[in-house]
Amino acid sequence: MIGILDYVWLVPLAPVLCFVIAGFFGKKTPQGGGYIAIAGALIAFIIAALASYDYFTSDYYANNIAYTVEMEWMAVGEFSINFGVYIDTLSCIMMLFASFISTLIFIYSIGYMDDQGVKKTRYYAEVSLFLTGMLGLAVSSNYLEMFVFWEVMGLCSYLLIGFWSFTHPEGDEAAFRASSAAKKAFLVTRLGDVCLMAGLFVLLHLFGSLDYADIFNFDIATVDSNMLMVAILLMFAGVVGKSAQFPLHDWLPDAMAGPTTVSALIHAATMVKAGIYLVARSYPIFIHCTDAMIIVAVIGGVTAIYTASMALNNMNIKRVLAYSTLSQLGYMVLALGAGAYLMSLGIEEGEPELMLLGGAGYAAGIFHMINHAFFKALLFLCSGSVIHAVGTEDMRMMGGLRTKMPITAYTMLIGSLSIAGIPILSGFWSKDLVLEAAFAPFHHGLGAGSIFMVLFILGMITAFMTAFYMFRMWFMTFCGEPRGHCHGESPKPMTVPLCILAVFAVISGLFVVFDGSYYILESLRTTIDTVIPFHTGMEIVEEIFTAIPTYVALVLAVVGIGIAWKLYVKTPYDAEAFKPENHGALYNFNAKRHYFPELYNWISWKFGAGVAKGVNALDVHVVDGTVNGLSNAVVGGGEGLSAVQTGYVRDYAGLVAVGVISILAVFCLIFLYGGGF
Amino acid sequence: MIDISFFLVFSAILFGIGMFGLISSKRGLVTLMSIELMLNAANINFVAFASYGGHTDGMVFVIFTIAIAAAEVAVGIALMLNAYKIQKTTEVDKLSTMRW
Question: Which residues, listed in sequence order, are joined to residue A142 by a DSSP beta bridge?
Answer without folding.
Answer: A211
